[in-house]
Design a protein that fits this description.
Blueprint lengths: L1 E5 L5 H10 L3 E5 L5 E3 L2 E3 L1 H10 L17 H8 L10 H15 L4 H11 L5 E4 L6 E6 L2 E4 H7 L6 E7 L8 H8 L3 E4 L4 H9 L2 H9 L4 E4 L2 E2 L2 E2 L4 H7 L6 H8 L5 E5 L6 H5 L4 E5 L6 H14 L3
Parallel strand pairs: 1-2, 1-9, 2-5, 9-10, 10-13, 13-14
Antiparallel strand pairs: 3-4, 6-7, 6-8, 11-12
Helix pairs in contact: 1-2, 1-13, 4-5, 7-9
The protein binds ligand FO1 and calcium ion (CA) (2 copies).
The site of ligand FO1 has 16 residues, from α2 and α6.
Length: 306
């Protein structure tokens, strides 16, 4: 049994590759970029993984449902609402039904399980906590919700800091703690280390459980050289005072992780990372197609012995 800690867009390809090869996969999902929109509770990272595994994800964008339409959003615009967050019509149904279930007293874990059933997803997707965590970005113009910073303002302002509101008080999902404890291997997916994996590591019970079994924890770098394969990871790392390369990542994860997979192009960093008492594995980390997803998943499952 393997357990993956995952964000959304940066993580989903590897998760898909792993699920194709392993019968029992737990996916502990970030909730830090969940966002209330028009009274609907949107969980981008959970939905990206669910849609990705159900083959419903818009692959090009990396979020939302493929071939979705945007009539609902257009009507909200007619009503004078802000429409920078592009929820599609089918996607909106997911948020609406989830919000109704929350209002009826269900927790996010149960709702996510129900969604997995509805979408015929076999992996066990576990929100890292049923409490609220909000990732906020401080810029020179003030503090914004991650979605406001990244989607509304297109991530253009300099980042001065990152906060995880509620993370210190959040109770780890007991099922997530067990999934870490019982796993043969725990994988930190190549999601954004500050905004996808970072919020989960801020939860004390999660961090502690990972550190206990860190010999079994394998991180996959989302970076090549000093930049992310995609997205703003490098910018956030620099803002957090972390060297934006595989070495900085390894150092950031060194309390919770003893193994790291880096791109072969980064092999000059291997010795330096090994000095952190980490095992380093070099391979191709980009996943441009299904074949590459399977290859990286296969490499982790077959070449990395923990
Ligand atoms: N990302 C965007 O860049 N623009 C959007 O309009 C957008 C809409 C959206 C709707 C539903 C959903 O689940 C995700 C969506 N995302 C959108 C992606 C997502 O919010 C971000 O990529 C991450 O949360 C930041 O890591
Ligand atoms: Ca995300
Ligand atoms: Ca970049």
């Amino acid at each position: 049994m393997i357990t993956v800690l995952a964000g959304g867009t940066g993580s989903v390809k590897l998760v898909r590759g792993l699920v194709a090869q392993e019968s029992k996969v737990n996916v502990i999902s970030n909730v830090g970029d969940n966002y209330w929109l028009y009274g609907l509770y949107v969980c981008p990272d959970i939905d990206t993984i669910v849609y990705g595994l159900a083959d419903l994800l818009d692959q090009e964008r990396g979020w939302g449902m493929k071939k979705d339409t945007f009539n609902f959003l257009r009507q909200m615009e007619v009503f004078g609402e802000e429409t920078w967050f592009r929820v599609g019509d089918r996607d909106a149904a997911t948020h609406l039904i989830r919000t109704n279930m929350l209002k009826n007293g269900k927790n996010l874990s149960d709702i996510t399980k129900w969604m997995c059933e509805k979408f015929a997803v076999s992996a066990n997707i576990i929100p890292v906590t049923d409490n609220s965590i909000e990732t906020r970005i401080t810029t020179d113009k003030g503090e914004l919700h991650l979605q406001e910073y990244w989607v509304k303002h297109r991530g253009k302002d300099p980042v001065l800091g990152i906060q995880y509101i509620g993370a210190d008080k959040a109770r780890p999902n007991p099922e997530a703690v067990n999934a870490i404890h019982d796993a043969d291997m725990v994988i930190l997916a190549p999601g954004n280390p500050l905004t996808s994996i970072g919020p989960m590591l801020q939860i004390k019970g999660i961090r502690k459980e990972l550190s206990k079994i860190k010999k079994k924890v394998v991180a996959v770098s989302p970076l090549i050289g000093d930049d992310a394969v995609s997205g703003p990871a490098a910018k956030y790392m620099q803002a957090a005072g972390i060297e934006s390369n595989a070495y900085g990542l390894a150092k950031m994860y060194s309390d919770v992780c003893s193994n790291i997979i880096i791109d072969s192009k980064d092999r000059l960093l291997t010795k330096k990372i090994q000095s952190l008492d980490m095992r380093v594995f070099e391979t191709k980390i980009t996943m441009k197609n299904k074949l590459a997803e399977d290859a990286l998943a296969n490499f982790i499952l077959k070449q990395v012995h923990v």
